[in-house]
Amino acid sequence: LVLAVQGEVQGPLRVAGVTTSKYFMPHLLGAFVRLYPGVRPSLLVTNRAQVLQRLAENRDDLVIMGQVPQGLAVEAFPFLDNSLVVVGWADHPLAGRRNIPLRDLLQERFLSREPGSGTRAAIDQAFRSEKMSIEPYMELGSSEAIKQAVIAGLGISVLSARNIRLEVEQGRLRILDVCGFPMRRHWYAVHPKGKQLSRAAETFLAFLRTEGAALLEEKRDASTSSPAKSKRGS
Ligand code: PGA
C-alpha cells in the first residue's frame, strides 16, 4: 500500500518509544523506509518517565507508549495490541497450574523494572487494585535483562507477550496462568495535541495505523514457517 506519493515524503522522522517497543519498532521503521527511502528515521528507546518528559517538551515527531498519559494534552492512536503476561522459567513449579491467584505471586522472587517504567506502574496498579503490594526481590533496568534473569531461574516477572514469543516457542520461558492476566493493553502513537506533523510523521502515523499490526503478524508467520514453505511463499 502506498499511502502518499513517495517523493513528497522525506526528511527526518524522530520517534521515541518506551523500552518494550524496541522489539517491534525497528521492523516497522524498516518496512516504512523501504516504501519511502527519502525518510531518515531515528528511534530513541527509553523508559516511560523519559518518554513522558520528551512528550511534554515536544522533542519528537511521535512517541510510542503503552498507556495514554493523563494530565497532558495529547492525541493518541492505538495501533497494536499489547498483552502483559506473567512469566517463569521452563520448569517453574507454577507452570501448568490453572487460575493461579495473584496473591500466590507474593511468595515468589519477583523481578521488577525500575521506577519510571510503565510496565512496573501497570504491575503495581494490578496489585494495588487487589489491596496488595509486591516487594521486588531484585530490580533490573531493562526488559531484556529481566527476560534473561527469568530464563536463568532468578525469579518470575511480568513482560509484554511480544517480547518473549521466541523464548516461549523454544520452551525457555513459560507463561503462568495468573488471575487478572494477560493484562490487555495497546500500543499508542502519541503527539502533543494540535502539533503540526511533518509529512513524514503524518505518513508514518497512517502507516502504523493501517499496516502496523498486519506487518508484524506477517513477520511472525514467516519466522515460524519452514524454510521450504517460506521460499515458496516469497
Ligand atoms: P516501559 O513502558 O518500557 O517504561 O516499561 C512500557 C509500557 O508502558 O507499556
UniProtKB/TrEMBL annotation:
<comment type="similarity">
    <text>Belongs to the LysR transcriptional regulatory family.</text>
</comment>
<dbReference type="GO" id="GO:0003700">
    <property type="term" value="F:DNA-binding transcription factor activity"/>
</dbReference>
<keyword id="KW-0804">Transcription</keyword>
<protein>
    <submittedName>
        <fullName>HTH-type transcriptional activator CmpR</fullName>
    </submittedName>
</protein>
<dbReference type="GO" id="GO:0000976">
    <property type="term" value="F:transcription cis-regulatory region binding"/>
</dbReference>
<keyword id="KW-0238">DNA-binding</keyword>
<keyword id="KW-0805">Transcription regulation</keyword>
<feature type="compositionally biased region" description="Polar residues">
    <location>
        <begin position="223"/>
        <end position="234"/>
    </location>
</feature>
